[in-house]
Amino acid sequence: MPERKNFIREVIDNDLKANKYEGRVQTRFPPEPNGYLHIGHAKSICLNFGLARDYKGKCNLRFDDTNPTKEEMEYVESIQEDVRWLGFEWDKLLYASDYFEQLFEYAVQLIKKGKAYVCDLNADKIREYRGTLTEPGKDSPYRNRSVEENLDLFMRMRNGEFPDGSRTLRAKIDMASPNLNMRDPVMYRILHATHHRTGDAWCIYPMYDWAHGQSDSIERITHSVCTLEFTDHRPLYDWFVEELGVYHPQQIEFARLNLTYTVMSKRKLLQLVEDGNVKGWDDPRMPTISGLRRRGYSPESIRLFADRIGVSRAESTVDVALLEDCLRDYLNKHASRVMAVLRPLKLVIENYPDGGVEELEAVNNPEDASMGTRKVPFSKVLYIEKEDFRETPPKKYFRLSPGVEVRLRYAYIIKCTGVVKDEKTDEVIEVRCTYDPETRSGLPQSSRKVKGTLHWVSAAHAVNVNVNLYDRLFNVENPGGDNWKDSINPNSLEVLKDCKAEPTLATAKPQDRFQFERMGYFCVDNDSREGSLVFNRTVTLRDTWAKIEKS
RNA sequence: UGCCCCGUGGUGUAACUGGCAACACGUCUGACUCUGGAUCAGAAGAGUUCAGGUUCGACCCCUGACGGGGCAGCCA
After folding, report:
1. pLDDT tens per residue, range A181-202
2. pTM of the predicted model as reported, rounded to 2 decimal places
3. In this structure, are strands A405-408 and A413-421 parallel, antiparallel, or unpaired?
4. Per residue in A485-514, pLDDT tens?
5. Distance between alpha carbon A104 and the CA centroid of its chain, in Å?
6. Which nucleotide is nearest to A311 (CA to C1')?
7. A130 touches strand B (CB under 7 A)
8. How far is A471 from A489, CA to CA, in rounded Å?
9. Is A499 within 8 Å of A532 (Cβ atoms)?
């Protein structure tokens, strides 16, 4: 799969030509372990690891774990699992917390240089002194402390002598800068919190803005790829490495991914989980990598997607239809075909011998002959899909109705002779038909043309399964604003009990993927077990009939 | 109203670094088909936000306007 060219690759090509980093390409994927990864992160992962792969470089996985109050081991584990599942292997597994001591020394350097100071202003005061978007800020009264005093205070901050929030270490830059990030940004805050890796070794923690650039520098990252919102921070990162006189990585920003009919911010995803709108981070309706995995997505399909959406600096929203196309592209080639009836309707073949059973041969994947064939039992009483029968067929309806002939897939051509109705509700509860023994698949007469072909399952041999039908989580393309939750799709999950599947499925294991012919692609749910099978609908097939019927 | 980023068919990206716009998704036809799937063939759809400028020539360069987005956490 040739990677598509994008502006970042052009930058790298030029750097390589100019021999800017001795021909090295070193990237990294730097998540904060404060939540599960989503499809937007997948874009970044494919980008960073893909760059390293294609330019024969290296890519680290580095956790930017600078805020112990929000980060957890659970997240660092899930992130590693997701990156691996996507098909990537990091050069080094690193943590910003590995650099806490080095970062502290760097800070001391800046203090000694007169470029950083301990500030006693509280959070409110700092905000007040910062000024506004249009007005300059003003200097902190603590801005001109002596180097000695700053050193002493900073050391005592580290030693735990001061309570949370009482002091900060700030870079001494320019309170009048039009770029707010340059108005003496906080480098360290006091936080008496236990860190998931460093425990209680520290009570001061570096801000992201202070830690991130230096971490990249320490790792000798050549191309530090990040999202657009950090563009305004780049001058600050540049200032730090220049004042420190250390290795200077090049930051390149790109637009984060937005997808229609879903939300992508960690905050909102967390809220969906906490409010019970979904059943967890890995709920198949979630755009998280673990959710997509449970839904039945393959790593290949997500990588293909990342490749097709490209990379740019223009903010955009990708149509989920593109993601689904990538999904079907993979599943069509790789998923075994089976027959399963989601909403069963009994079909009795009047002229078929009682108790007779035939083993009919069915193709496992018409796209891949090497996947072979299997036997499917056929008998007098079958189940067909409710929607495949209409007593009074609408126009262009190719399926079964009274007097009409259809093909039963891999079996015979049948003709509907009548129906049995529920006396009270008038609902059709059974369809009667006759079959033509000459038309079995493979026989000469089988070439007779009929309008439709139906899937079916032999009633006596069927295995009962439960099926989760998933639909989009939101009813609107761009769920935004304060009332984003109002557009949650109340019907995003429909649970079907006692669906009928062919016996092959009895031993299906979690994560196994199938195409239920004519119905869609399905994946065995993680909570499924033998005897109590649960399938998740990954995505429907392209359905031209659904389109016709709608209009 | 300060600074920064962005503006190409419905959507997402391209355009060999200035030679009148390509690919994919989607949409619509038709063919084929024992999945109304897949596949195949074809069509519609933008003159590149706008106005100036530079140039023989601009989506590409310059200026300005308009539109969208980001930034005032001791979050990342």
Report:
1. 999 999 999 999 999 999 999 9
2. 0.96
3. antiparallel
4. 999 999 999 999 999 999 999 999 999 999
5. 36
6. B13
7. yes
8. 8
9. no
